Fold:
Amino acid sequence: MAQRDLYEVLGVPRTASAEDIRKAYRKLARRCHPDVNPGDKAAEERFKEISVANDVLSDPDKRKLYDEFGPEALQAGFDAARARAYAAGGGPAGPEFDVGGVGRFARFEDLFGDLFGHAGRGAAQPGADAEAEVEIDFLDAIRGTTAQIAVQRSEACARCAGSGSEPGSGSSCGECGGSGQVRVGRGPIDFVRSCPRCGGAGRVAGRPCTTCAGRGETAHPERLSVRIPAGVDTGSRIRVAGKGAPGRGGAPAGDLYIVVRVRPHPLLERRGADLYLDLPVTIGEAALGATITVPTPDGPLRVRVPPGSQSGKHLRVRGHGVPPLKTGQRGDLYLRLMVQVPVDQNETLREALRTIESAYGRDPRSDLRL
Structure:
């Protein structure tokens, strides 16, 4: 199935601003979050889809590449400079080629490797990237943590060395003479490509390996200790190099990408890099002012409540929000004052409240109009 356009996934135009993308992602994430739709596989897949779209479009560099090259830019090992050279018709006289062999492409088969089956590289094939998911607490996402993740990893079969054939059962390829390469093309220049019969291995497969059943790899469970940096959010992706699928023919393994899912907090709300907390205060603290202790992700903090503070007023505590994941400044913590009225009342308290009531002087709802 073709991959959906990432802008379509989030329901925004290609001209959408970073703020438009953030708002669209938060709206969809709240609707499709697995915690809101327990047991709904379709919602879970939709949540993963919008998380990937947000990961790309909220990153200026990734978004620029996606806008220029489309989904191909998201593939592991994508080379933007080489793709631009191809698109510009780069050749022997182009900027990416050096006939003396000291430039990026030392041989014609290197330049046209993608077109002719990675010629000159034998059966070498980098391993595919893999993906896993980890769920962490809200405060761990703010502070950073180390998560233990269980994954199923594949590795080259030890018995057949990744060939998929029972040792000693294969034979030399008759089409390429065991070299793994054949020449193609006519005229003054010809090219080499991987042999289509043996895939560049130089040998034709024999009986399937009894250990891996011809797959060339075996799977085994592995526990990884992954460092989760401070500031991650739902949809953040953490790269663990070399922990993806194994490569073939001596090529490196792919990478493992850990997709983060953050459990909501009962008291704190995150809006971008800022945090919001409803802070209960007494009538006296709001009216007369006070210095009170409030909890923050960094520990208890003393905060000044100005005299005459109304319920709903926001107090800004600079630098106590979400740490920057890559670059930028740390967010702020906003405290919304919530004036609490005593529940247990006696005559003395009621008399005091009547005195307070008389101090208003005017109806506080006199300017309320619809």
Summary: The chain is about 20% helix and 25% strand.
